[in-house]
Design a protein that fits this description.
Blueprint: E1 5-6, H1 13-24, H2 27-34, E2 38-41, E3 44-48, H3 56-71, E4 77-80, H4 87-95, E5 98-101, E6 119-122, H5 129-138, E7 141-144, H6 148-162, E8 166-170, H7 176-183, E9 193-196, H8 199-210, H9 218-224, H10 235-238, E10 242-246, H11 252-270, H12 275-278, E11 279-281, H13 287-299, E12 306-310, H14 316-326, E13 330-334, E14 340-341, E15 346-349, E16 360-363, E17 371-377, H15 383-396
Parallel strand pairs: 1-7, 3-17, 4-5, 4-6, 6-7, 8-9, 8-10, 10-11, 12-13, 12-17
Antiparallel strand pairs: 2-3, 14-15, 15-16
Helix pairs in contact: 1-3, 2-15, 6-7, 8-11, 13-14
């Protein structure tokens, strides 16, 4: 009988290692890392964050996707959404013959074209519970690359639903990961969830819990969260017991602050002595996200003159890295190296946190004279794209591309 579910790879890791090394690694980046994350090129000092780029979960997802294309060369291979939020990686998979399935604006996937003899890759963000069940019923081969950190959040949300707590999720309600996480409440009857984007939305929930003068009317509250809460959500009954979770790539400090705020409101309403009956919270920010944010904050203790953040514009963790950097220094969030035009001396970047914010072109962004430039990248950005960015930065300064030292 043919195996139809793969969660731990497909046994072809060694075969595809040379392919991944050729397409995603950068000898230049590895050389700078080996030299203490710092390099000097004339009067330009380049500093790399101590943690940047591909995390384990992303590396694993890309690895499994490539293994799938090698193991099933004669089958149709589909991908639910994008494997990760990086345009280069997704383009390479398209070139390898993978067909991408995109949802409607409401997050609904159409699997009507999928047959039992097809292969379907599940992305690192995971898929909603009902989508997973639909694909299993079709009987197609599933390659599940869902990140372990995401699975950890799912377990928390499932436990909330099991114990009668509403899952309050700090995240972007339209994001694939958040949709998949929210769906986990459906593993139990009457499971409930509500998604808050930031502290401002969290305070709407807190005000309602406390019944203070700022609290929205019940109908107004329901209208505001109509797309961000489970069907039939009633704040009168569904905010009595709350468990906090989060999209793994959100700002860790904000997630912790939101959890603390919700806890204070429930304590104010029901009494500190009864808090355990009404509130649960676990830090479910993934370690890679935390490490990359911590590395940026460490760098900002002595901020560079200019900071470049590399990663897809729809990458949540990359957007938050850029947001952190903007608080300290001039920051440019670019999708990849092609955003830098050395001949014209301009850079195209996304200046705002919102994923759909338009690009802006800036001239003379790399001023003459002694300069320190910091560099980091989101967890879905491969080293090859970081290396290409460094090369274009040096070209903007009219400097030759250094040749990494040969290993002896």
């Amino acid at each position: 009988m043919q195996e139809t579910y793969f969660r731990r790879g497909l046994g072809l890791k060694k075969e595809i290692e040379p392919v991944l090394a050729a397409e995603y690694h950068s000898a230049l980046v590895e050389q700078i890392r080996a030299d203490g994350y710092r390099a000097t090129f004339g009067d330009l000092t380049l500093r790399l964050a101590q943690d940047f780029g591909f995390c384990y979960g992303v590396d694993r997802a890309v690895d499994y996707a490539y293994q799938a294309t090698h193991k099933f060369p004669d089958k149709r291979i589909f991908l639910v959404g994008e494997i990760i939020h990086n345009p280069h990686v997704n383009t390479r998979l398209r070139e390898a013959g993978v067909t991408f399935l995109y949802p409607t604006k409401d997050g609904v996937f159409d699997f009507s074209q999928i047959r039992a003899d097809d292969v379907v890759i599940l992305p690192a963000f995971g898929v909603a519970l009902h989508d997973f069940k639909t694909l299993r019923e079709i009987g197609c081969v599933l390659i599940d690359t869902t990140c372990g950190s995401v699975l950890n959040v799912w377990k928390r949300v499932e436990s909330y639903a099991r114990d009668g707590f509403t899952a309050l999720i700090h995240g972007k309600y339209f994001h694939e990961e958040t949709r998949a996480t929210a769906s986990q409440v459906n593993t139990h009857p009457n499971g409930k969830y509500i998604v808050v984007r930031d502290m401002d939305e969290a305070r709407l929930v807190c005000d309602y819990i406390e019944r203070n003068e700022r609290a929205l009317a019940r109908e107004t509250f329901q209208f505001h969260f109509r797309e961000k809460a489970s069907p039939g959500f009633d704040p009168e009954t569904d905010l009595v017991r709350v468990g906090v979770a989060n999209q793994t790539t959100m700002l860790a400090t904000e997630s912790l602050a939101i959890a603390a705020e919700v806890g204070r409101s429930l304590a104010a309403r029901y009494g500190e002595e009864n808090l355990a009956e009404h509130f649960r919270s676990f830090d479910t920010i993934c370690s890679a996200t935390q490490e990359r944010q911590d590395a940026v904050l460490e760098m900002m203790q002595s901020p560079p003159d200019v900071m470049v953040v590399i990663g897809g514009y729809n990458s949540s963790n990359t957007n938050h890295l850029a947001h952190l950097c903007r608080e300290y220094t001039t920051t440019y969030h670019i999708a990849d190296a092609t955003c830098i035009d050395p001949e014209r001396g301009v850079i195209r970047h996304k200046p705002e946190l919102a994923a759909d914010a338009p690009e802006v072109e800036v001239a003379d962004w790399l001023p003459d004279g002694p300069l320190t430039l910091g560099l980091t990248a989101g967890a879905s950005t491969p080293n090859v794209k970081i290396g290409e960015t460094i090369e274009r930065i040096l070209a903007t300064r009219g400097m030759p591309i250094p040749q990494p030292q040969q290993q002896v």
